[in-house]
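Lab notebook: predicted structure, single chain.

Context: the supervisor wants predicted structures on file for every construct in the current expression panel, including those that have not yet been purified. This is the next one on the list. No modifications to the sequence; it matches the entry in the shared construct table.
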Amino acid sequence: MTHALVVTAVCIAIALEASAAPRTTTHAPAVRGRPLRIAAALCSVLLLVSTGLAVASTQAPWIAAFAGTLIVAGGLLRAKAMRNLGSHFRTEAGASALVTTGIHGRMRHPSELGLLCWVVGLWLAAPGPWATALALAQLPLLAMRLRIEDAALAARFGPAWAAYAASTPRFSLR
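Prediction complete. Output recorded below exactly as produced.
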């Protein structure tokens, strides 16, 4: 039962993200796209290993339910961010427009907060030294992604980005 909860949560989160991914994107020049693609690939591998570990070792149903809720919430948040960006959504830094409305009007990095929910959910499903190491390995990758994205947006949008960044928190809903 607990394994099915975790698997179902991961499948729902993946389906939410897949349904929100834009069919077309704008073609602004990518800025430092390769480091972000490498970080994203590493995060994906770590999430895959974490998922396997969580599915194999989750014992308590209430932990599986709570972890599954966090994973689905992360998928919902990422899907909402993707939908809000629409054709401006990219996997590498270099946006064609500065989107400051919708969920991006409440926080600058909702997709990354969603990823953090996934990571914490998977860690809760399988607490232990391996899961902790996998979760902690995600943090520097996430921090690198935030720095690169913020720098690329600042370079592209200048004063508009500075005003947005000053008035909009990275993660918290205001």
